[in-house]
């Protein structure tokens, strides 16, 4: 008999840290070593961004600046991924930065985009509230004008 090769050897990678077979986003995130200082700094950065998103809800111009800054950071993610892929040994224990940008999209871009979605939702709410308020004032003004015309 000849040596038989194992059937269906999967080409799905196994990460080096936890030896998990990466089959989903969840297993990918579980395979990341979150105790690395730069990842802790990234998490703190996202918490600060969320805090600024909430705080700037009352300050329209500051919120516009915050929104544009986050959109610019998402836009620069591709360049940041290339830079990090070339220099990962200087700040990380593992090479997380793949050519397709999955890691940077999951841990960097998606949280920033969620913040921008929150800001857009606040803007839409404000717009609807302002339009309702304006229509109410118009109807009150019209009613007062009709009352004056009846009295005259």
- Mean pLDDT, all residues: 85
Rg, rounded, reads 26 Å
Major β-sheet annotation: none
* Approximate shape: rod-shaped
| Extended strand count | 0
Briefly note the structural class of the backbone. Answer: mainly alpha
End-to-end Cα distance: 112 Å
Give the count of helical stretches.
5
Estimate the strand proportion. under 5%
Q: What's the helix-strand series?
A: HHHHH
Spans with pLDDT under 50 lasting ≥5 residues? Answer: 6-12
The proportion of residues forming helix, as a percent range, comes to 55-70%
Write structural notes for this entry.
The protein has 152 residues and is an all-alpha fold. The chain has five helices and no strands. It has helices at 25-30, 37-55, 60-75, 77-87, 102-151. The longest helix is centred in the C-terminal third of the chain and has 50 residues, at 102-151. The chain is rod-shaped and about 85 Å long. The protein starts with 24 loop residues before the first helix and ends with a helix.
Layout of helices and strands:
Blueprint: H1 25-30, H2 37-55, H3 60-75, H4 77-87, H5 102-151
Helix pairs in contact: 2-5, 3-5, 4-5
Summarize the structure.
The protein has 152 residues and is mostly helical.
Considering the chains and any ligands shown, give keywords for the structure:
single chain; mainly alpha
